[in-house]
Amino acid sequence: MKTGITVGIAGHVDHGKTTLVKSLSGIDTDRMKVEKERGLSIESGVAPLILPAGHTVALMDVPGHTDYLKNTIRGLSGVDLAILVVAADDGIMPQSREHLDILKFIGAKGGICVLSKADLVDEETLEVAEMELQEILSGSFLEGKPVVRFSAGSGTGIDAIIRCLEQEVGRLPIKACAAPFRLWIDRVKTITGLGTVVSGTVRSGSASLNDTVVVLPQQITSRIRSMESHNRKTDHVNAGQRVGINLHNVHTSALSRGMLLADPGIAGSSYLLNAEMGLLERSATPLKNRQRVKLYVGTAVVSAMVVLMDKDKLMPGGRSLVQFRLQNPMSVLPMDPFIITSLNLPTVMGGGTVLEVPSEKFRKAKIHQILPYLDALRSGDISGFVDSYFNSTLEKYTDARTLSRSTGLPVAGFEAQISTRVNAGEFVYLKRHGAYRKDKFEQIKTKILAIIEMAFKRNPLKKNINRIELMNMLEISLDDILFTQIVETLCSGGKLKKCDGGYQLKCSREHLPADHEKLAEALLSYSRKSGMTPFSTDTFWKEHEKIHEKEAVKKLLNYLYNRKKLVRLNDHRFLSLEAIDEIKARVTRFVEQHGCIRMTDCKAILGYGRWGGVHVFDYLDNTGFTSRVGDKRLLRQPVDGSHSN
Questions:
Q1: Does 494 share its domain with 613?
Q2: Distance CA 472, CA 259 (A)
Q3: Which of these, 63, 99, 65, lies nearest to 84 by C-alpha position?
Q4: What pTM does this model have?
Q5: Pairing of strands 5-11, 56-61
Q6: Which of 101, 108, 301, 640 has its CA 20 to 30 A from that of 536?
Q7: Inside any domain, residue 435
C-alpha cells in the first residue's frame, strides 16, 4: 500500500535550507511577504519532490531562527527522514545542534547531511567543516550517513542528494495503514467554493472521501468532503502523506493549528500524561520537580507542570518517569513523541515518549504500584506490563485490544499473554468483555457473601440487598459488568438467590429476635381473626393499646409480606392468606351465578363497601385472578388459587 514520506529540512538560519528545497523541487517555500523582505523562513513550508523511482516525498522546510522555534518543532513533528543543512562557511551553529535534538526526540528514522555554500570556501575549510559535522553526528540517528557538498549557484551535489535520499527512503519500514487515522493540523484556511480546509501530515492510518472524522480535543464531528495531496485531488490518503482535507459543516473559526483530526472514538482529551523523558546534556540547569515547561506533541503546544516520579530533580543528560499536568487538554496516544522547551525562552530542554494517558494524578504513596508497569511500558515488556496492570487494577476487567490501544504495544502480544494466563487458571475470562485476575475475582465473591450475611444479622427484617446497596458496601468502584458476572456466578453456584430485584443468601435461615418472633405471631393471629376485612399498621397498634412500637409493627408486617405470609393491598392494608382464599372462592361462585362482578357487589361478596372493596378487587386484577372489562370483572382461566404478592 502506498504511504507518504516527509523529509525535514533542518539547520541554522541562513544556512540555505529554502534554497536547497528550491533547487530540488523548483518551489520557493517562503510564501509570505515578510519572509521575502527579511530573507528568512518564519513558517514551515512544504514542497513535493518526485524521486527517480517515482516516489513522491514532501520536503518540510522549517525556520532556522531561534525566535520561531515553536514553528520549527511543529514543522519537524511529523517527519520520517531529515536533511541537516550546515553552511560550510559558518560550520555548526546553535540551531544546527537544536534541530538535531528535535529530530532525535520526534524519532526521525534516518537521512543525510548537506554541507551547503560549498563554493564559498576552500577545500581545507570544507574538510574541517565535515570533521566538525561528523563530530556532532556521533551517536545520533545520522551517524555514518552521507555528507554531501552542495552549491546552489552551480547545482553541484543535487544529483548526489537525490540519490542518497532515495536510498534512505528505501530503508524506511512500511507504515501501518491499518492503524486508526490521525492527522495533526498545521494549517487552517477558508477556500472560496469549498469552505474549511485543514492541512497536515497523516500520522497514522488512512482516510477516504466521506469518512466521518472528529476534531480533538474539541470533539467536533465532521465528514471529509474532498482531499488534495500535493495539489492533486485524491479519494484516499495513507500514513505519511501530506494532505489538505475539506471538512463538511465546520467553520474555520472553530479550528486552529495543534488540533488533531482522527477516527471517532480512538482518543479523548486529557489533562494528564505519563511519560519517559530525557533532559539534554547541554541543558543549562537541572529540571526541578513541578517545574513548568512548554510541551509539544505533534503540532500541539501547551503549558505543563512536570512531576518527577522517581527523583527530586532531573540532572542534564538524565532520564526520568514523569507526569505532565497540562494547563489545557491534549488528545494524545501512547508512544507519541514529545519535546519540552523552557517556559520563557525559545530553548529545547529535552523530550521523550508518552507511555500512557492516566485517569488520576500521580501520588508518591502509589509509587510502588505505578512504577513497575511504567517501567514495563518503556521497555516494551508485555508480560511484565500484564502482571503489573492486573495486580493494580481492582475495578475493571480488560481485553487485549483495549490494552494495545492504551499502550501502543501490539495487540497480538497481549492476546497471547491473556490466553496463557486464562489457560493456567490465573485469569477468568468474561465472555465478550475481557479478563480479570481469578484470585481477585474470588476475593470479591467472598466479600459479597460476607456483606450480605452481616446485613441480615444487623437487620433480620430486611427483605434483600439490592444492587446499589451491595456495590456501595463493597467500598470499591467495581465495573458494572464485572459486578454482574460475580453475582451471577454466586447465584449459579448456589451461594446467592435473587429476590425481588435484590439478593439473599441461598442458605440463610430466618432467625428473628424473641420479641420480634412473638410480635410476628401476634400479627399473623390478628390477620386470621380479621377475616376478609383488611387491616393496617395503625389498626393493629391501636387495638393492642399501643403496647408495641408502631415502627416495629410496620416493619414486621412488611417482613411477613416479603416472606409471603401475608397479602399487602395497594393501600398498605393487609389480609391473611386464608382470607384471600375465601375471597377468591366467593368471587368464583358469584361470577358463576351472575356472569361477572361489579363494584356494587362488594357488600354481597365481602361484607363491606367500596372503601375496602376497591383495593381487594384491584389486587385480584393485578394478580391475574380477574380481568376488568369496563365496569365488569370476569374470571381469568385457568384459576390456580396461588397467592401472588
A1: no
A2: 40
A3: 99
A4: 0.73
A5: parallel
A6: 640
A7: no
